[in-house]
Amino acid sequence: MGERIGQVTLALSVxxxxxxxxxxxxxxxxxxxxxQLFKGKIFTTATVTQFMSNGVSFAGQMLIPIYxxxxxxxxxxxxxxxxxxxxxx
Amino acid sequence: xxxxxxxxxxxxQRFGIRNxxxxxxxxxxxxxxxxxxxxxxxxSVAVLARPLFVRGIGLSAVGIPSISxxxxxxxxxxxxxxxxxxxxxxxxxxxxxxxxxxxxxxWRLSAAPSPAVTSDAFAEAxxxxxxxxxxxxxxxxxxxxxxxxxAEMLLTSSAVEADGPFTRSARQASPLISEMAARSSTRSxxxxxx
Lengths: 89, 194
Known about the structure:
The structure holds two protein chains of two kinds. Chain A has three helices and no strands.
């Protein structure tokens, strides 16, 4: 059940992102978020760097506590640990 | 990050954007690799804490130089849009990579033959994180050497008068800029020109 919800949400978000790009490209200059900026090579590179840097930072913040709770903690703390993680994220 | 942020401005001036970002990304990768070892060999707090500290310093060194490169590369009137776009993309990065790693970990955990061997799944997930760190490192290598604006000013001033007042003051301000100026006057190729 949970897995199905996740898959549907993921598919929906990908579809919405695709729609955003379609609309933004069609509107060009008039778009709310102007994609023209990404024609600049330096700007695009810096944005990709920011994307990746934030990405690895958050992925680490998710993986390390889960590892500590799941693989290193006693079984009793696991549910509490997951809830803490959810609340924190 | 708290320890290293105050130094970032001075370090960016000293080493330049690309060197500092790439160095930071490399440091972050070096701080993430021990996690793979940790997951397969069992927890040791000392082995966990030190690499995490190094990883934090490394990641903090990636952010500020790349943001300044992005803002310096756009026209002043495009700055508000640049702020919005950069913010959106930056915020997309976190959930995207978290979902990727969590999905991968979930898949490996469900593939594990018994709950006792979950450490292998974690080692593989940290391996994926290291791979993402390598991608980050490769991305930083494509950043410009200097803040684009400063380099352009320097290029024109050194082309007009090689020992002009700007170049002289820039030389005093930063050894890196003086090195660049020396290169641009001896060689025609400027590292930033396309």
